[in-house]
Every structure is written in structure tokens, then in C-alpha cells.
Amino acid sequence: PGASGEAQDGAASKLVCRVRPCEKPCQAVTVLERETRIEVTLNRGQPGVQVRFDHVLGEQREQQDAFDLIRPGILGCFRAGSAGCTVVAHGGPGSGKNYLLSGLFQHKESQQGLVPRAIRLIAENLKGGRTSVVAVEASFFEIHNDEAYDLLKGGSQRVGLHELPEPPHVAP
């Protein structure tokens, strides 16, 4: 989302693919950052499946590169007093979702994920502000097999989610 609460081009959301480094060389996946697509070829000699995204970040990219893509949306929501901003990480086990969102808290700033960076960005924008009271809330959910779990409560407590007509559209 941009300053109006929408993405820079007017879309309500952006689809970004961040490619995790492979443990072994993988010939089947071609990452085309400039063309914002990924191509997967399962059988040699046959055309691959192409998937397009708003942005593609190859495996050599850093946490900061991912954050730079969402930073304008976070600032836009914050400055507009929006009901909320949502960042979703999707992928299979071991695909890097937790690292992307949380990073490594104990390590260098360069290894911090999107959430600590967003919190720092909001805190920096609160300094010297005109508003005397600001409420900032955060939720951290894992959705697995259509069940939601509250990760701030240990991840074992199942949470029922329902859709709302107004932002943030989904609530516990």
C-alpha cells in the first residue's frame, strides 16, 4: 500500500516472490528478476511453467531488499491512520517464511526480518509526532490446513478467523 493505503499502482496488494537459496544446485528453477517471473521446468525439452509476480527477489538478495519493497506501504498506512497493514509469507516447510518475517533477532541488523524492521520504522515515525497517544497492535498467526494459530501465545492455541467487510478484512 502507498500513501492512500493502496499499492503504488492503485492495487490493494503486491505479490512478491523471494527465492531462498537452494542447498543443492537446482536446474529446474530459473529466476528472472527483471522480468518479474519464475520459470519451473520439470521435464527437459518441454516448456516450463511460468509464474509472474509484481517483484521477484533472487537468492542473492538481502532482507533489506525485501523490506524496501514494503516500506512505502507501511509508511502510507501509518501516515493515513489506516486500520492496518498486513504482510503474508507463504511457502512450504523450510522455505524461509520465519526468516523473512522475523530474521535473526540476536544478530546483525542486516539479518533482521520484515517485522522488526517495520516496528523500528513505526517507532522512528512516532518520535517527535504531534499525537500524544498512539496505539500499535501486532498479531502473528500461522495458518496451517485452514487452522490459524496465535504464535504470540506459543502457537498451540487455535484461533477462529472471520472475514470483515472493512479493513483489516480478517480478524480473530
From TrEMBL:
GO terms for cellular component: cytoplasm; microtubule associated complex. One of its GO terms (biological process) is microtubule-based movement. Pfam families: Kinesin. PROSITE patterns: KINESIN_MOTOR_2. Residues 12-172 form the Kinesin motor domain. GO terms for molecular function: ATP binding; microtubule binding; microtubule motor activity. It is found in: Cytoplasm. Its main location: cytoplasm. The keyword Coiled coil applies. Keywords: ATP-binding, Coiled coil, Cytoplasm, Nucleotide-binding. Belongs to the TRAFAC class myosin-kinesin ATPase superfamily. Kinesin family. This is Kinesin motor domain-containing protein. It comes from Alexandrium catenella.
